[in-house]
Write a structure and sequence with these properties.
Strand content: under 5%
Strand order of the largest sheet: 1-2
Number of strands: 2
Shape: globular
Oligomer: single chain
Helix content: 55-70%
Order of helices and strands: HHHHHHHHHHHHHHHEEHHH
Length: about 450
Amino acid sequence: MKFYSSKLLNKKTQSINLSPPSLLAFGFLSFIVLGTLLLKLPISHHGSISWLDALFTATSAVTITGLSVVNIGEAYSTLGQFIIMLLIQCGGLGFMTFAILAALSLSPKIGLKQQVMAQETIGQTSLARATFTMKGVLLYSLFFEGIGTLILTLAWMQYYDFSDALFYAAFYSISAFNNGGFSLFPNSLMSFSGQYLVTLTISLLYILGGIGFVVLMDIKRAHSWKKLSTNSKLILSTIAGLNLFAFIVLWSLEASNPLTLAPMSIGDQALNAWFHATVPRSSGFNSIDIANMRDPSTLITMMLMFIGGGSLSTAGGIKVGTFIIVVLSVIRFLRRSDEITIFKHSVSSSTTYKALAVILITTMLIFVGFFCLLIIEPNHAFLDLMFEAFSAACTVGLSRGITEQLQPASLIILMLLMFAGRLGPLTLAYLIATPKKSRLSHPTAEIQVG
């Protein structure tokens, strides 16, 4: 009888023993459900908010996307806005960061499975390093958000009383650093397009959040370019190059556009061109009307959304490291080189395969979502729907103004894209973290490519 009970207990334990990807999905889903229930409370909103509106807002906040079907500043009460701010913070820092830190605070020893999850989530090879990194994630977030809150409070005290300025500053600092893109103003930051302190502070916050916590910690440790790790050098140089490229191209394309930059002074043009060169990397703020940007600028914006920011950051997309590894792989193939080298270091084949897998999965995700939107929304423009699919799947939050006009089925598609976009790279990392080697050796086949 004891044997039977023990066996039954083991089966019961195994039935609730979730895999790392399942636990991650369950964690984010739990935040979304809780956020939906809280936002639907009568004290959390003004007027009438449907369950779909609350669910969409909670999903967008937890996945740190920023798309919204209602005006956040008008539809939700101060309590509702505070709930959204907390959801953005939880989504930005990540469910696993909170979960592992909580487990470590309760017990210094955690199980082997939790160790693997902690290590794979943040890309570290030892539990001690994983724990150190996760604590750094929390401290860096609070530090930069605190600095941002202080600066924005001082900037907005000339427009609002202290309590409102402080709340706005805290909300925008958290939304910016976590690349959430949520705004309490109806036109996002268009009213502050000429306010250098506000625009540059928010820009700096989402750039820092999008670089990646491992890189930020490496900068603090190294204090010089030579002492930085190869990964940090690659991320920083690529981000700087992309930002400079996008800044020049967008300013050139939009400088003569009377609906965006043309009416501004040269200084304001440069400021807003920089803002929109850096914001598509995952933050959904805008200081000019996205819908009135020229088509080439829109295409560049979608490309930047697809690339995203650094790994272990609050940004979305395929990540900068993924992008540059694939580019270098193509260059290696064209040059018939034997290996990929970065700053006198080689890159393993498994890293290249992982980068290719991330790009293919993300591309397919966007394509399927976009295809569904085209079927459901025949009256909307092709480019607008494509932009919406890129923005959702890459968890950016920029929109050409059609989100509120979409049908419920389309909103469900966008929620699935946001959820998959936030969860996808992490899940993929778990799936390929443990290589499965076969003892069988198969003959080589010559496959025609290109």
